[in-house]
Sequence to fold (429 residues):
Amino acid sequence: MQQKTVSPLRWIPTAYFAMGLPLILLNLVAPLMFSDFGISDTQVAFWTSLLILPWSLKPFWSPLMEMYRTKKFFVVTTQLLSGVSLALVAMALPLPDFFPYVVAIMAVIAFSGATHDIALDGVYIHELSKTQQAQYIGWQGAFYNIAKVTAMGGLVYLAGVLESQIGALYAWMTIMGICGAILVLLGLYHLRMLPSGGGAAAHADGTLAATMRETGQVFLQFFRKKYIWIYIAFIVCYRFAEGLVIKIVPLFLKAPIAEQGMGLTKNDIGLYYGTFGVVAFIVGSILGGYFISWRGLRKALFPLCCIFNIPFAVYALLAWMQPSNPVLVCGAIVFEYFSYGFGFVGLTLFIMQQVAPGKHQMAHYAFGSALANLGVMLPGMISGAISDAVGYRAFFFWALLATVPAFLITWFVPFTYPDEKTAAAANEE
Fold:
């Protein structure tokens, strides 16, 4: 009971920072690290894309977590596990054949991070009233994105500084060690500050078989929804081009000019991509929400798809022109990230308002989000092989062609539920 009196501001910012850190490390920082050690783009893109699979599969084991221990137990345990695993990554880097060992350890971090997300969202929903959930949602999103700035901005920049002093190996060992220490310290902090979030006590009478049967029914009902196969195609196509470029962009920015890259240092990438870019993403996300509230989702969706996908042309232009002006390069990256944030809210709200509604809204929203992650992971797995085969210039051209299905399906996608703007217009008529 004492834990419930703790202000949410004493655990929401730190817990959602801990949620964002492992995903960003595996998804965006690890490709830069592996590139420094001479791993090919093909391997980097394939394995770091495969590592995000647990975030797509997490709805399948989330019901089991209701039966064993509290949500707080899973949050704290996974933070400690991820922290220790990052320390093991640091220790594995000097090994002669380090790559498979590091990928295996990162797979543990991925499952731990996905489990952490399930449990923490459960704590948030269980412990806060609907009014409080709305009140603190901004803090949740802000600190999740601060983890992005910290990892892709500050830590990548620090890696560049350390590399010039102690070499790439010890620089990355230090970065992984720092990240591991942060997560361990956060786990110990949340051991004291985090409320329980409910869990096993509420499901003490349940059995594993009954839980799995219930989960199966929820899963089947998702695929019986009206237009669901069109919606699945829409979710996958909307982010397909993003899935192609997201792994390659950091490698492209770092690659030498002679190899069709931009020749940026890690300091530059940390500043342009991981700091200014993430800030632009946050601003774009906020403005995108206001745009939807003004136009209504149905009228806003196609413009949002265009704003989300067309700016990937930035990287095609950079690859072909290879400008040396840092302001121009930074401005191009900031523009693309702003557009990415602005357009991404369209997909999120579509899943929330068209895919999820029904008897099992929370579970079906999780399924929709998992499909969105899968839509990024699958093209990401092949992006490195395509890039290595055709070079960066042709690769970004093909990525632009990959946006065409998104435009087509967004133009024709049906709506099951009218949005507020459409409903209001119908009532006036």
Notes: Residues 361-401 form the longest helix (41 residues). The mean pLDDT is 86. The chain has two domains: 1-203, 207-414.
